[in-house]
Amino acid sequence: MSSRKIIHTSKAPSPIGPYSQAVMAGNMLFISGQIAMDPNTGELISGDIKTETRQCMENLKAILTKASMGFEQVVKASIFVKDMKQFAEVNEVYGSYFDAATAPARETVEVANLPKFVNVEISMIAIR
């Protein structure tokens, strides 16, 4: 049986439901979807899709850091967007966090709605 550990940091938003920020199972880290919420104020970051995406990525970075990992260890990402017409802008910000040659597998899905009616949510799986 592999070990299971809950990962939590105050540098990312606290869960808004019955889930953990992340779970380390053996050498794999499963990070819950992150939205553009400021972990210090609990307020949503709004404005444009690039700003929202950057906050999502910074929240993911904080969780990876708490687990002593980084973006280079991410093997899978899932991006959910309300409007696929904003994909290029989301992709530009998302891509700035990875080396294109070693970027993780990923899917991007347009959805009808997201928690708190945000425009983007991103989850990740990383491996040690």
UniProtKB/TrEMBL annotation:
InterPro entries named in the record: RidA, RutC-like_sf, YjgF/YER057c/UK114
The name this protein goes by in its record: Reactive intermediate/imine deaminase
One Pfam family matching this protein: Ribonuc_L-PSP
Family label: Belongs to the RutC family.
Gene3D superfamilies for this protein: RutC-like (3.30.1330.40)
Organism of provenance: Muriicola marianensis
